[in-house]
Amino acid sequence: MPGERSAIDPNDSTDPTDPRQLIVWMGWDPREQMAWHVAAQSLHVVSPRVIPRRLSLSDLQERGLYTRPIERRGVDFWDPISVAPMSTEHAISRFLVPYLCEYRGWALFVDGDVLFRRPIEDLFALADPQYAVMCVQHPPLGSAAPKKLGQTQTLYSRKNWSSVMLFNCEHRANQRLTLDLVNKLAGRDLHAFCWLDDHHIGMLPAKWNYLVNVTAPHLDPDPNIIALVHFTLGVPALAGHESDPFAEEWFAAARAAGYTQP
After folding, report:
1. Which one of 18, 214, 223, 229 is at 20 to 30 Å from 115 when CA atoms are compared?
2. How far is CA 84 from the centre of its chain?
3. What are the beta bridge partners of residue 78?
């Protein structure tokens, strides 16, 4: 599988014109290692000089950066501060990205269950300094069925917006996103971008976060131009998702990453 950078490496100098220095954080969950490796492989194919960084909860806890209490309840993690489940270990730690980057430059966060189909340089080219965060602004969900291994989904304002975020880490508004804030606020408030005024949230084209089996058919972009596929309900390796849209591409990336099954 392609290389990866250390999970916490904030002191790298960054040059936005050099794809080797573009910062891409991918959420890591030990229960979803295959999904992460497939995502990393797909990134390597479209942007071979961009090396992803693992956003690992255990690393953050060891360094004393993530101090929120966590409980295990069946297949769910439970966050007592939010009084709500966490479907992945990086449900809340994603909001530490500006801090990890020392509030410098631009950085991309993506969930670990994505498939890159277009060069990530094209996404960074959309960075607009007037915004603190840029994302695909999905419409509200009417309901939320269980996903992946049966984890509970929680409905909240701006659901799915935070699954792909292009952070302007040095934007003044992101100075509010401190270590203390991330460790004490309810997750639903962080996912709703509570630290930002609305005009500080920029819009990315829908093709940069296509939600498999979630995005409404009339909002689907042309399949030929979809740049990033997000298997938010479950990657094709999970039962019931083997024939989902883009499953064949995902399986091809899995084989290229060294997985012989499936």
Report:
1. 18
2. 19
3. 71, 85
Residue 258, judged by CB atoms within 10 A of its CB (0-12, 13-18, 19+), counts as exposed
CATH number at residue 188: 3.90.550.10
Residue 197 lies in a domain: yes
The answer to whether 229 and 246 are in contact (CB under 8 A) is yes
pTM of the model as a whole: 0.89
- Rounded to an integer, what distance in angstroms lies between the CA atom of residue 58 and that of residue 185? 20
pLDDT in tens, 127-157: 999 999 999 999 876 545 555 555 555 555 7
In a domain, 4, yes or no: no
Separation between Cα atoms, residue 114 and residue 171, nearest integer Å: 27
Please return the burial class of 17, using the count of CB atoms within 10 Å of its CB with bins 0-12, 13-18 and 19+: exposed
Helix, strand, coil % in the chain, rounded to nearest 5: 30, 15, 55
Burial of 229 (0-12, 13-18, 19+ CB in 10 A): buried
Is 7 a member of any domain? no
Residue 163 neighbours by CB under 8 Å, 6+ apart: 110, 111, 209, 230, 232
Side chain identity at residue 255, one-letter code: R
**What digits encode the pLDDT tens for the residues 27-73?**
999 999 999 999 999 999 999 999 999 999 999 999 999 999 999 88
**H or E stretch at 252:** helix 247-256
Range of the domain at 120: 19-256
Tokens 């302007």 sit at which residue? 168
Identify whether 14 is part of a domain: no
Strands 106-110 and 201-203: unpaired
Answer yes or no: are the C-beta atoms of 100 and 16 closer than 8 Å: no
